[in-house]
Design brief:
The protein is mostly helical. The protein has one domain: Non-ribosomal Peptide Synthetase Peptidyl Carrier Protein, Chain A, CATH 1.10.1200.10. It is 48% helix and 0% strand. InterPro entries: ACP-like_sf, PP-bd_ACP.
């Protein structure tokens, strides 16, 4: 697991999983179909990516296929870093 993957998994587990939810996040946990990402949580995730990871996500990349799981988010971040 890369450092970015670990940071994202930790952030999602600690900040987006609600108390009482019996979900353990890993890099393949489905974030959309599990209900972990709604509009508010997505905004928190985008803020984390911008402030803590240093990669702002442009509106054109706010598509569901880029946020299926941590693996797809890492791929998006890598793509944006190379631009």
């Amino acid at each position: 697991m890369t450092e970015l993957t670990r940071r994202l998994v930790d952030f999602i587990q600690e900040n987006l999983v609600q108390d009482g939810d019996d979900i353990t996040v890993d890099e393949t946990t489905p974030l959309l179909t599990s209900g972990l990402l709604d509009s508010l949580r997505t905004a928190r995730l985008l803020n984390f990516l911008r402030k803590d990871v240093g990669v702002p996500v442009p509106a054109a990349k706010l598509e569901s296929e880029n946020f299926q799981d941590v693996t797809t988010i890492v791929a998006l971040v890598r793509e944006l870093e190379s631009v």
